Amino acid sequence: MTLQLELLRHGETTAGGGFHGSTDAPLAERGWQQMRAALATSSAWDLIISSPLTRCEAFARELAEQTGVPLRIEADLRELHFGDWEGRNSAEILLEDSEALGQFWNDPYRFTPPNAEPVRDFADRVLAAVERLQSELDGQRVLLITHGGVMRLLLARARGLPESQLLQVEVGFGALHRLQVEAGLGLTEA
Questions:
Q1: Average pLDDT over residues 137-162
Q2: Is 79 a catalytic residue?
Q3: What is its EC number (predicted)?
């Protein structure tokens, strides 16, 4: 059996661009529109799962109420915490410490921003949660409303990319991707 996992990234937020991993910014009106448009032709999930951050959870609660699909909040599927870079944009960090920013972009598993969650710990947390969900929800179709980092991680793994290419995976606001999750955390794009 296989878990059919649809991944929906939250839309644009009121915080604008930058490193907003644990920043709990709400969706901007455009963000709501992006998410609604992404799901215009999708439905029939057995379960909706959401990150606990407002930019995901608010939309997930509205969708669950409208569709009657049960909702579960999963804290382990929240975004990476960026430490001292949290709430800042790349241009600011580039001016302050271009070397550190370059190291992070080139190999996020080997370079951790100051006081941030190491990407390896983030990956372990997210992959353990997905493996647990696959075991529990095998054979079901689930919508996961989450973040760019979570989706990059899962898509990079499904594509067999090396760790150094994690941040090269493109995931726009309101992007929708489909994965099949097999036992043992076998991931393939559907």
A1: 97
A2: yes
A3: 3.1.3.73
